[in-house]
Design a protein that fits this description.
8 helices, three-stranded mixed beta sheet
Length: 174
């Protein structure tokens, strides 16, 4: 098995994305990554983040890429969680992420850092996110209460939150 096959296996399970740190752990050098970029096998998405050139896009790609660009421990935050799960906003212009530590990288304009402590984490569709009940609470004050109430009902209907969580959130909305 070649190094590129190893990279492909990781990226195939992660929305076509692989980071330099993941590649390095498998013995892949920066020179090999640069060569694959030059050959058109990989696309450089940002500092230390690459995507397979032949990747089938999904609705979750932007969110997975935002988390990968910022770094380990980062989660999708607030209304971006609602958008990702199709509970609000069809196609928001930015993805809000909460990093685990200070970020000094230059990020694309569509990735916005939020200085917020995330108490509960979850993974939806394999993308690390703020837990949905906490994300809904984080949206209070800048998302219309009617939309949040709809998001709670839809999340409960889809089994994303429990009946008790839905009742608690609906009580907080009043």
């Amino acid at each position: 098995m070649t190094h590129f096959d190893d990279i492909y296996e990781i990226a195939a399970d992660n929305y076509g994305l692989v980071t330099f740190a993941e590649a390095k752990d498998m013995g892949v050098t920066g020179g090999e990554l640069d060569r694959w970029v030059a050959q058109g096998r990989l696309e450089r998405r940002g500092r230390g983040t690459y995507r397979l050139a032949r990747h089938i896009p999904t609705p979750y790609d932007r969110y997975a890429e935002a988390v990968a660009l910022v770094g380990p421990g980062t989660v999708v935050w607030g209304d971006s969680v609602l958008a990702m799960l199709d509970l609000a906003y069809e196609n928001p212009p930015v993805v809000y992420v909460a990093p685990a530590r200070r970020v000094r990288k230059v990020l694309p304009n569509w990735v916005k850092l939020v200085d917020a402590h995330v108490n509960e984490r979850a993974a939806y569709e394999g993308v690390p996110c703020q837990a949905l009940p906490e994300a809904i609470r984080a949206c209070k004050g800048h998302v219309l209460p009617e939309r949040l109430a709809d998001a709670v009902r839809n999340a409960r209907a889809r089994g994303l939150i429990t009946r008790a969580e839905a009742a608690e959130l609906e009580g907080e909305m009043v």
